[in-house]
Amino acid sequence: MPSAQDIFNKLVEIGGKLDDLNATTQAIRADDDQLVNIENTDLGELVTLAAYTNQALYQNDLQNATIICLLEQISKNTCDLVNQSHLQTALQQTIEKNTMRLAEMFAATHGEAALALEREQVLRREIEKCCRPEQPPPPCQEKPCRAPQQIDPPPQVGGVIE
């Protein structure tokens, strides 16, 4: 026949198993409550969020098209500048060499004219101190790309479980 201590130990063991069963039941109830909350979430809110996501992706696509346009313009302008600078450097070197030769020949044969030219240059610099000559407009003018309109911020919906 089992002793009173054996019966007491069995009762404690059964009580522990009942506590475990109770904890498991509470966890299942919490999961059920969460499922009920998900089911109660307004489907319209989810549709609204999905529509906003689609709109944001489309906005991003439009911005990418603008970025690509700008990069193509930069690439074309850079290539044009490199080609022009190559041509202009060669021309400037030739002009400098020829101008120096002409100035030396002119000064050697026409001393009085060289002196008059030097005086005119001094006067021109004094005039330009107060009245700068008009500068031509820069050759490169920015051509803005079409930028998409900004979209509204995302809708504020409640009840969505994250």
Plain-language structure description:
With 162 residues, this protein is mostly helical. The chain folds into 2 domains: 1-40; 41-130. Helices cover 77% and strands 0% of the residues. The chain is built from 3 helices and no strands. The chain has helices at 4-40, 43-109, 111-130. α2 packs antiparallel against α3. The longest helix has 67 residues, at 43-109. It starts with a helix and ends in a 32-residue tail after the last helix.
Tell me the series of helices and strands, N- to C-terminal.
Answer: HHH
Helix content: over 70%
Low-confidence spans: none
Number of strand elements: 0
General form: rod-shaped
> Proportion of β residues?
under 5%
pLDDT averaged residue by residue: 82
Query: Which class of secondary structure composition applies to the elements?
Result: mainly alpha
Give the count of helical stretches.
3
Query: What's the number of structural domains?
Result: 2
Amino- and carboxy-terminal Cα gap: 59 Å
Protein traits:
single chain, 162 residues, mainly alpha, 2 domains, 3 helices, rod-shaped
What is the fold's blueprint, element by element?
Layout: H1 4-40, H2 43-109, H3 111-130
Helix pairs in contact: 2-3
Summary, kept brief:
This protein has 162 residues and is mainly alpha-helical. It has helices at residues 4-40, 43-109, 111-130. The protein has 2 domains: 1-40; 41-130.
